[in-house]
Amino acid sequence: MCGIVGFVGARDNAQEILQAMMDRIAHRGPDGQGQFLEGPVALGQRRLSIIDLEGGRQPMYNEDESLVVVFNGEIYNFQALREELTAAGHTFATRADTEVLLHAFLEWGTDAFPRLNGIFAFAIWQQAERRLILCRDRLGVKPLFFARTGGGLVFGSTIGTVLCHPEIEPVIDADGLRTLLLLGPARPPAAGVFRQIESLLPGHYAILTPAHFTDEAYWKLEAHEHPDDLEGTIARTYELICDAA
Fold first, then answer.
1. Which residues contact 95 (CB under 8 A, 6 or more apart)?
2. How far is Cα of residue 117 from the mean position of the Cα atoms in its chain?
3. DSSP, res 147
4. At 134, which helix (H) or strand (E)?
5. Catalytic residue among 2, 135, 164, 242, which?
6. CA triple 145-151-153, angle to 5 deg
7. What is the pLDDT of residues 116-131, one digit of tens each?
8. Alpha carbons 243 and 245: distance in angstroms, whole number
9. Is 242 labeled as catalytic in the residue annotation?
10. What's this model's pTM, rounded to 2 decimal places?
């Protein structure tokens, strides 16, 4: 299952806060934990080992450690992406899909996100630019919550992890509570029960820099005319089911 947590905003007790956030999701990652703390940023991950049990430890860095990533989920097409990146000159030290994500971002930047086929939530920290990027899969299978603070941002795979940060108050949002009670257990994608805490929308990525915060869509569901005949429809449906299996 795995889980990720982190925040931007320097604090004297950053390590203590980060560990409390990671402890809150220990059940999501019983196989290990890792953390990164430097300057204003703190990143943590609890891991359930699935792909490359030894080489997939996180946080994961690129060769010169200019990028750091914590990742939750699975990229189904990482082998195809790895082949494409290898042809472009990239080399890999592990068999993990997390490393493929790092190199995809190095090659294509945020244009890499629409190329990812999978279920995921991840955070990338760019050291030189002091830029944090959060991203969530197309349909929002993997959760990712965040809250803006005076000094930056707090994020995590669960609401409980975000509430571990001392700048986040557990104040009920009246409209969010009404929505939950009227629609429950469903709710609008970005709505939250706690006033400060939001959910990153499916198919979106957010960027936090020292100067600004942006939230953009990299994918959206679109309707198109269906041009195939019966045989073509059957073939395409079979192809999609096999790809999803």
1. 51, 52, 55, 56
2. 13
3. E
4. strand 131-136
5. 2
6. 15
7. 999 999 999 999 999 9
8. 6
9. no
10. 0.89
